[in-house]
């Protein structure tokens, strides 16, 4: 049966970096509410646009996000879920939709999170993730087109971390209390973190 992996962690913990690799490794879908919302930032909903929430570092309303996840899960056999659930009501909703092969928490300290987020750069053509200090492309053409995400400024990063402590840490506690969470130290080279994650996924399968 295809793998159904949940990757939890603070903003900047490396969920996007690792999810992309997991999706390739196991031939499963990468379901990311963040990317889906960024692609529809100015979509009008009855709650306003996603942009109004995202640029303030707040959570987009559950109704909008649950609908995205519903559609993505319906199309996916296996998946790695990145950026969802982010509060307890989303966690409850998810448990009604599917079960999981593994739930992992990528553990990274706050100073490192801030350094990773404020230095992150994205390739708008491929979606590849880079970092000004740790990981820049060799190709000058790619380097020239890299952009910073609107919510990676120092001010919005602080708001996103506050939102994470208030809303998402209780989700992590919830999975921990269920005995369903495996914690992975995320402060190492991305290759090393990937190896730690795949060790867990394969032992849970
Ligand atoms: P989203 O896009 O989900 O952002 P996030 O959770 O804040 O996580 P990030 O994408 O910022 O970090 P990441 O852990 O993926 O780190 P990455 O791998 O890029 O959400 C954005 C917004 O959308 C939210 O604020 C909210 O408004 C809304 N939203 C999304 N989902 C929602 C939901 N379910 N409900 C309501 N609202 C929702 O890595 C970061 C950097 O570090 C990169 O530069 C990378 O190169 C570098 N790096 C990665 N790993 C390492 C390593 N091991 N060593 C050194 N550098 C590393």
TrEMBL record:
The protein's GO terms of the molecular function aspect are: AMP kinase activity; ATP binding
Residues bound to AMP are 33, 38, 58-60, 83-86, 90, 149, 160
What catalytic activity is recorded? AMP + ATP = 2 ADP
> What is a biological process (GO) this protein takes part in?
AMP salvage
Cross-referenced NCBIfam families, in alphabetical order? Answer: adk, PRK00279.1-3, PRK14530.1
Main location as per UniProt = cytoplasm
PANTHER family registered for this protein in UniProt: NUCLEOTIDE KINASE (PTHR23359)
**What is any Pfam family matched here?**
ADK
The listed locations are:
Cytoplasm
Among InterPro entries, the record links this protein to: Adenyl_kin_sub, Adenylat/UMP-CMP_kin, Adenylat_kinase_CS, P-loop_NTPase
Associated pathway: Purine metabolism; AMP biosynthesis via salvage pathway; AMP from ADP: step 1/1
Assembly state and interactors? Monomer.
Q: Which residues form a coiled coil?
A: none
Q: Which Gene3D superfamilies match?
A: P-loop containing nucleotide triphosphate hydrolases
HAMAP family, A to Z:
Adenylate_kinase_Adk (MF_00235)
Q: What are the EC numbers?
A: 2.7.4.3
Please name the top-level EC class of this enzyme: transferase
Q: Which family does it belong to?
A: Belongs to the adenylate kinase family.
This chain's protein is named Adenylate kinase
Role this protein plays: Catalyzes the reversible transfer of the terminal phosphate group between ATP and AMP. Plays an important role in cellular energy homeostasis and in adenine nucleotide metabolism.
Record remark on domains: Consists of three domains, a large central CORE domain and two small peripheral domains, NMPbind and LID, which undergo movements during catalysis. The LID domain closes over the site of phosphoryl transfer upon ATP binding. Assembling and dissambling the active center during each catalytic cycle provides an effective means to prevent ATP hydrolysis.
Which keywords does this chain's UniProt record carry?
ATP-binding, Cytoplasm, Kinase, Nucleotide biosynthesis, Nucleotide-binding, Transferase
Residues involved in ATP binding: 12-17, 120, 129-130, 188
